[in-house]
Design brief:
With about 375 residues, this protein is α/β, with parallel strands linked by helices. The chain has 2 domains: about 240 residues, Type I PLP-dependent aspartate aminotransferase-like (Major domain) (Aspartate Aminotransferase, domain 2), CATH 3.40.640.10; about 100 residues, Aspartate Aminotransferase, domain 1, CATH 3.90.1150. The protein is about 35% helix and about 15% strand. It has 9 helices and 13 strands. The protein has a 7-stranded mixed sheet with strand order 2-10-9-8-5-3-4. Strands 1-12 form a two-stranded parallel ribbon. Strands 6-7 form a two-stranded antiparallel sheet. Helix 1 packs across helix 6, helix 2 packs parallel to helix 6 and helix 7 packs parallel to helix 9. The protein binds pyridoxal-5'-phosphate. The site of pyridoxal-5'-phosphate has 11 residues, from helix 3.
Length: about 375
């Protein structure tokens, strides 16, 4: 049970809701995590903290079934730092890299990638406002490119890959910031997967990078050490002072996530919660979601009401009922629901009930 206002459900896209159990544990640990001191006050070289980091890596490996030939790194800088780290570490003298553009985040990764190489756009769905993944027949790949970058779940546009894209024998480099730990991952074609923490992994300030070991050691000579995967692997992610509190929260979130089940179970829950939302949207003319159904996200669901005045009222009335942070991203307007692992079924059921009542009243 949540310590504070336990009737509040936070549907924000991130930084997102944390499970009540995690918040309670943080509250208990703040003054005395080890030997009368908070985790924020300790040396990161203390054995007790280093043991914690190893346990966290193991928990992540267990949950995602990460193969041994992948290194797990804990870095700074959020997912956006990876938009630079990926080309700097993986280009390995190649002049081209491939980017699939399916929404704001993959577009930003593509734009950043252009600083380091001739980034080639495999295909883009910008022409139809990022409401679907581009048709496979439209995809073109560059001849020599070590990786294909894509965003597994577009947090703003609500578009998700339900299977990894075909990568033409190149390594996939994937931004899984908003859907990591919501389904099993088949690692076969992946070179690197990264995710910042503030959605399904805890709080902002730490970034998980899962990278194939054979790709380490080829970073561009000018790569800042702070973005160099090999430096992080060799220092066990303790290259400089790490964001200790964020790392510790990540540990709590992973323990909590393990209690919820394995990735198959998490995927099932995700599907169940999003199906409840899509059912309300699709059975009404009042709510609309523009995304092509087979490409809809199970995590982030943007939707519109008939006009902006109704949207403002919807967000206000929901907020008054404890259904928080339903305002859509400023690029799209409207509303957005985010359904990370810490959002309980009960919260979704209440939202669905509210949506039906709101439509009845104003529809
Ligand atoms: C899919 C995706 N990629 C990248 C980012 C940027 O993450 P950060 O702010 O941690 O750099 C976000 C943020 O919401 C995101 O959803």
């Amino acid at each position: 049970m949540r310590v504070m206002k336990n009737s509040v459900y936070n549907f924000g896209a991130g930084p997102a809701c944390l499970a009540g159990e995690v918040l309670n544990q943080i509250k208990a640990d703040i003054p005395d995590w080890y030997d009368g001191m908070s985790v924020m006050e300790l040396s990161h070289r203390l054995p007790v903290f280093m043991d914690l980091t190893q346990m966290i890596e193991q928990d992540l490996r267990d949950l995602l079934q990460i193969p041994e030939d992948f290194a797990v790194l804990f870095m700074h800088g959020g997912a956006r730092s990876q938009f630079s780290a990926v080309p700097l570490n993986l280009l390995n003298k190649a002049s081209n890299a491939d980017y699939l553009v399916t929404g704001t985040w993959s577009d930003l990764a593509y734009t950043e990638g252009k600083k380091y190489c001739q980034a080639h756009c495999v295909a883009t769905s910008q022409g139809n406002q990022f409401t679907q993944i581009p048709l496979k027949e439209e995809w073109t790949f560059s001849e020599i490119s070590p990786y294909v970058h894509y965003t597994d779940n577009e947090t703003i546009h609500g578009v998700e890959f339900h299977e990894p894209p075909n990568c033409q024998g190149k390594w996939l480099a994937s931004d899984m910031t908003s859907n990591i730990l919501t389904k099993p991952i088949q690692f076969d074609n992946y070179g690197v997967i990264y995710a910042s923490a503030q959605k399904n992994l805890g709080i902002s300030g730490i970034t998980v990078v899962i990278v194939r070991k054979e790709l380490l050691g080829f970073a561009h000579p000018y790569t800042p050490s702070i973005l160099n995967y090999e430096v992080y692997q060799q220092s066990q992610s303790l290259f400089n002072t790490p964001p200790m509190f964020c790392w510790y929260v990540l540990g709590l979130v992973l323990k909590w996530t393990k209690q919820q089940g394995n990735c198959q179970a998490l995927a099932q829950k995700c599907l169940q919660k999003s199906a409840m939302l899509y059912e309300v949207i699709d059975s009404s003319d009042f709510y609309t979601n523009p995304v092509y159904k087979p490409h809809r996200s199970r995590i982030n669901i943007p939707f519109r009401l008939p006009n902006e005045a109704l949207e403002t009222l919807f967000i206000k009335e929901a907020n008054d009922l404890g259904l928080k942070q339903l305002k859509g991203h400023k690029a799209l307007g409207g509303c957005r629901v985010s359904l990370y692992n810490a959002m309980p079924l009960q919260g979704v059921a209440l939202l669905v009930e509210f949506m039906k009542a709101f439509e009845k009243k104003y529809g």
